[in-house]
User: What shape does this take?
Amino acid sequence: MTRIMFFDPALSGHHPEYINHIVKYIVKDTKGANYYFVVNPELNKNFDDIKTLADSNPAIKIIEITPVEYKAIYSTGSLIKKSINEFRIMNSYAIKFNIDHCFLLHVNNFQFALGLHKTKYTMHGILFGQYTWQVFPNNFKGWLYKKRKEVQTKWMLRNKKLKGIFLLNDTKSCGELNERYKTNVFKYLPDPVTDFQSETLFNLRSNYNIPSNHKIYLHVGSLEARKGTLDIIDALKYLDDEIRQNITILIMGRSSIPFDLLIKQRIEEINASFKVSIIYENGYIANSRLKSIFEQIDFILMPYKNTESSSGILGHAIINKKLVIGPGDGLLGYLIAENKLGYLINPVNSMSIAKAITDCFYILSPEYQEDKIRNDYLRSHTSDVFANVILSQIQL
Assistant: This one.
C-alpha cells in the first residue's frame, strides 16, 4: 500500500488550515493509501479538531516532531544550515515510515537541500513567494539578488525526484518558470477558501466595547513586520481627529515574543499622543470566532510588503464580502485588482495606509465585486478542489 507523508512543522497562519483541508478530504476517500502528517509539536494541543478528524480514519496518522527537532529547524543560523537541518529531520521521518512520496507544505526552506540530496521517495511541495513577481532594484545589487533567485530555483530542480512545485493562485508564473527552466514541474494550485460556522451569540462590538458608530478595520493573521502591522499602528498619527475618533483598529493573530513586545510598545506610543481605539490580541483564533469577526467588521487591512505571494485572507474577504486595503503591485495586487476586492496602495507605508483608511471611512456603501466573479472564484477555490489537485498529482 502506498505510504504518503505530509511534512509541515510550522503552526502559524495557513499551515494548520491546509493540513485540515487535506485531512478532511482524505477522511472521505483514502484511495488505498496510508497517510502520515508530520507536524508541529503543539498541533494537537492547539487544533484538537484536526487530531479528532484524523483519528476517525485508521489510514491517517498525526505525528508531532519533538521540541528539540523544532528548535533545530527554527534556530538562528544561515539559510543553508536551516535548509539542511529541516531536510535531515524530514528525511528521518520518511525513512522511519518507509515513505513512497513526501509532500512539503512549505518548500521554500528546502530549496538548497533539495538540490544537494537524493531520496528514494518522490516529492512535491508548495512554493510561496516566487521571484517572478518581485520588483528588483535597478542596480547591481538588484541584478545580483535576482540572479541568486534564478540560480536557487535551478539548483532545486537538480533533484529529479522533485515531481511538482505548486504555486498558489499563479498560472502566470507556472507558465513562465516552466518555459524558463524547460520543465513541467511548476503547477497551479488554487488557494482554498473555506467558510466556517460563525460563533453563536458572539457580538464583536459588545465583546470589545466598540462604539456603534465606529467603522472597524481588521488586521489578522500571522503578525510580522512584512505584513505591515507596525505601519498600520503608525498610520494613526496621520489621520484627522474626526476619523481617528470614529474608527477601531483590530490587530489579531499570532506574533513572536519580540514582535509582540514591539507591537505593544508602538500602541503605547500612539496612545500617549492621541485618543485612539486600537485592540490587539496575540494568539490563535478559533475558526468559528474568526468567522464571526469577519462578518462584523467593515474593512480588512493587509498592507503586505511581500507582494509576490497569495494570501488566505483574500479568501476570507471574498466569502464574507469585505473590502481589503492591500498593496498595488505583485501577485497580491494583481489578485485584488483582478477580483475587484478593494483599495490598492502603492507604495505601502504608514502615510498611504492612513489615506486608504480615510478614503474608505467616507464610503457610505462600498461596492463589492460582481456576484459572477465572486461565485466563479468560490467554486474554483474550495478546500476539496485544493486537496484534490494535490492528491491527484501525487497518485498519478
Summary: The mean pLDDT is 91. The longest helix spans residues 79-96. DSSP finds 18 helices and 13 strands in the chain.
